[in-house]
Amino acid sequence: MKPRCPSFWITLGILYFNIGQNNDSLDALTRAVELNAHIWEPWYNLGVLYDSCNGQHSDAADAFYKCLQRKPELSNVRARLEAQQSYAEGLNEELLGGSLIHEMVNSPLDGKHGW
């Protein structure tokens, strides 16, 4: 079964993330991006996954940047991205830990996400 709805894959990615199956979460979220790279939710969730589970701060920053390109008003993502940039420049390691985003976001099943 390979549904063509990004929201399905986003939800599946969140479920996998919540039970600690990070590779499966990555696969599901990547599938959502492949189906519709223009929505912000899978990029947000990829940032959370890379950041909190895998410690891949550079990949997390890339995903959060793409998220902000699609939804610039997300202040928590902007703060996280700024913290990651400070960390990468060796300026503030405490800021990195203090701005961690712990939860993923779901996507509405409204037909606007590539049904």
TrEMBL record:
Signal peptide: none annotated. GO terms for molecular function: chromatin DNA binding; RNA polymerase II cis-regulatory region sequence-specific DNA binding. The keyword Ribonucleoprotein does not apply. It is found in: Nucleus. TPR repeats lie at residues 6-39. The keyword Zinc-finger does not apply. SMART domains: TPR (SM00028). GO terms for biological process: negative regulation of transcription by RNA polymerase II. GO terms for cellular component: nucleus; transcription repressor complex. Gene3D superfamilies: Tetratricopeptide repeat domain (1.25.40.10). Its main location: nucleus. Keywords: Nucleus, TPR repeat. It holds the Pfam family TPR_8. This is Uncharacterized protein. The lineage of its organism: Eukaryota, Fungi, Dikarya, Ascomycota, Pezizomycotina.
